[in-house]
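for the recovery benchmark. tokens below, seq after
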């Protein structure tokens, strides 16, 4: 054991960071490129307990490099803080990669804030274009639309589950959804009838149509990205 030293830490609800396998790829790619000594570790809920971090029902990424942690936060959401860890303990006990498949029963961070308003439910139809099918379910008032469909056997597109990436973007064909929890779509895009399923709550009947992720991303950011001079390479190295 060595002395404890401060590290940057990204903390999020269980499944928010590793839910779609992208974090596993990121860590594994980084180790392949820079070696196993790269100061970048995933802490599962079990490891968080073993490292005596007094947080429950969360997972975390620990790194020496603040840029790497900030970049992950942009991608997955969560909260950044500084905590002290024993470097030797991290090296010996935290080398496992995050799980490759999503946790079952995953609950999005912001879902904890959601409230059920009544016994009322709303008919929500999703025109799932990528799968060429239409699915209709009655979603309880105030419930997460994405989570309700998942719990009833229909997995819809998602990635960050935190309203940041636009993978789950939909066009609102008719009706309304509550998007007040989201930050990932500009007011302008919302007024054009786009929404994000991962943060959408049912507040009335609605028909929604899935979109290509790039389509919405382009509409929202294309004009800005077009004017930026790109620098080739991994974001961690920039
Ligand atoms: S899954 Fe990323 S914005 Fe919804």
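predicted aa per position
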């Amino acid at each position: 054991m060595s002395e404890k030293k401060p590290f940057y830490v990204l903390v999020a609800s269980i499944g928010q960071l590793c839910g779609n396998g992208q974090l596993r790829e990121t860590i594994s790619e980084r180790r392949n490129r820079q070696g196993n000594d790269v100061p970048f570790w995933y802490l599962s809920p079990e490891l968080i307990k073993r490292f005596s971090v007094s947080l429950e029902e969360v997972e975390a990424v620990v790194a020496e490099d603040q840029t790497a942690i900030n970049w992950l936060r942009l991608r997955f959401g969560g909260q950044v803080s500084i905590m002290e860890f024993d470097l030797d303990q991290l090296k010996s006990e935290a080398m496992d990669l995050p799980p490759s498949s999503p946790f079952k029963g995953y609950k999005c961070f912001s879902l904890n804030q959601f409230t059920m308003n009544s016994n009322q439910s709303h008919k929500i139809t999703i025109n799932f274009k990528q799968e060429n099918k239409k699915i209709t379910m009655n979603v309880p008032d105030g419930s997460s639309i994405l989570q309700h469909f998942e719990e009833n056997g229909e997995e819809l597109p998602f990635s960050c589950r935190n309203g940041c990436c636009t993978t789950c973007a939909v066009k609102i064909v008719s009706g309304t959804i509550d998007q007040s929890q989201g930050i990932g779509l500009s007011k302008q895009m919302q007024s054009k009838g786009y929404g994000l399923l991962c943060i959408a709550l049912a507040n009335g009947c609605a028909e929604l149509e899935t979109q290509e992720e790039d389509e919405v991303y382009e509409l929202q950011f294309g004009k800005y990205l077009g004017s930026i001079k790109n620098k080739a390479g991994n974001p961690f190295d920039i």
